[in-house]
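Minutes, project huddle
Topic: does the predicted pose make sense with zinc ion bound?
PN asked that the exact inputs be recorded in the minutes so nobody has to dig through chat later. Recorded below.
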Amino acid sequence: MTASNKITLTKPDDWHLHVRDGVFLPSVLSDTADRFARAIIMPNLVDPVTTTRLAGEYRSRIIGALQNKHKLTFDPLMTLYLTNRTSASEIKKARESGFVHAVKWYPAGATTNSNQGVSDIVACYDVLEAMAEEGMPLLVHGEVTDPTVDIFDRERVFIDQFLTGIIKNFPTLKIVFEHITTEDAVLLVEGASDNVAATITAHHMLLNRNSLFNGGIRPHHYCLPVLKREKHRKALIKAATSSSKKFFLGTDSAPHTKETKESACGCAGIYSSHGGIEFYAEIFDKAEALDKLEAFASFNGPDFYGLTRNQDKITLSRKQSVIADVIPFGNEECVPLRAGGNLRWSLD
Ligand code: NCD
Ligand code: ZN
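Predicted holo structure (tokens), as shared on screen:
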């Protein structure tokens, strides 16, 4: 094989992941642990992970559900779910735990299991102050929840109404603008200080909003923030492949059952962990930027979070494999991204 048909990388990390809980954990964890050394575990369980104690218990359940071969190779990095009632002392506790690495801000009602999220961020200013002091990153679901704002504009409006102000008021707070979907978000992050970074999903770089309505409504392409126009997809690819240290890999793999997706009111979320690194290899390859993949997938994230880079390596080959129509998900099924299609790259 020529060099461009094979690529060896420092083992990557997934900086935005949903693995759910209970019977669902074993169904999805091995896809992630086969590819990644660490993952930032999102706290939006049905009963959200609002305290260090709950994060520790959730972490134990995750480790308990890992296959034996992954128990020593995979480290779940936990997060807390910010609420109007989170205290500054909880942030201290979280930092001292060593296993909580960030705090997630869901505007109340913005996405799956966000009802207990923040309704007034100003009420959380003492907590943000404590986070800045402790070097604890704030992870932001950046969409306004105002139902009168067009759903395709909610990220852009969030930047103007909230994010710009938070960045200005808390210049030393580390902020990750999660799963960015617009050119506006790219420009905001590029223009901000080194304390502001962003994760980018594979699906927002593979698909534009036409994929939601391709010959009929496509519930498995519905996620939040919703897919955007082609010009935004292109801006995301440009950012990811730009060599900027501010952008890093976060799949936002978010499994739901087939039944709850294929419904009159289907859930938001796309499962992509089965191709957690392979989809990105395809995107970077197509952009003729495979040489930029390692920094995006394996260096920029740990550097931003102040963690060490991984030591192990993985190798990907340009080799097709068929993606299953469904994967087992607890006692039910989940439809993975590009079900029945091909992965263009394979993990050796
Ligand atoms: C996520 C989920 O299902 O938990 N859904 C999604 O569409 N991305 C929540 C989130 O990250 O918004
Ligand atoms: Zn998410």
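Observations noted during the meeting:
- The chain has one domain: 12-312.
- Residues 321 and 343 are 5 Å apart (CA to CA).
No decisions taken; revisit at the next huddle.
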